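Q: Hi! First time doing this. I have a protein sequence and I read that you can turn it into a structure. Is that right? Here it is:
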Amino acid sequence: MASSKLGTSSHSENENMPGSLTSCLITLQDLTYKIQSFSSDLSREDIANTIEKALHMWSNVSQLTFTRVTTPGVKADLNIKFVSGFHGDNHPTDGPGKQLAHSFYPSNNRGLAGDMHFDDDETFSINGGRGVDFLWLAVHELGHSLGLEHSYNHPNSVMFPYYKGYRPKLRLSSDDRNGIQHLYGKFAYTVT
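A: Yes, that's right. Below is the predicted 3D structure, encoded as structure tokens:
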């Protein structure tokens, strides 16, 4: 499992820019997200809390903000699903131990921009349990949804293309921070 590959859709690799950036980004900085389906491995509460932690990792170093949408019929900028096999996007999941998830870059994927699809045939865990660490995977896939490509030259980067196992006290690397800040600016502290 330690060498499982992560997937993205519709991108080209650029190893010379911080965070390996795509040419597309979301033009908004206040984004909404919706968890449209859940995994059988984790509770709904654990999934929601982990997604929120992953979003905070990116918003704590950039000017992005995220608000969860739970109202049926209301659209969101980022849609999160747990899927299995063929699920309507021409990128079927491949079962356990291979590609763990795939995401769609912003603005160049009609109807799927920013969406994240986690392979529900994988076993997910939280805080070092048995299975793929869901926090690491969520942070990685969110990076793609926000416009970051894989970071091949930085093995400690969250955007490194291979899952290397659970990392206690997960943090963004300087390469991750530089990439997201290049796209969306640095976090702005306000004093009131």
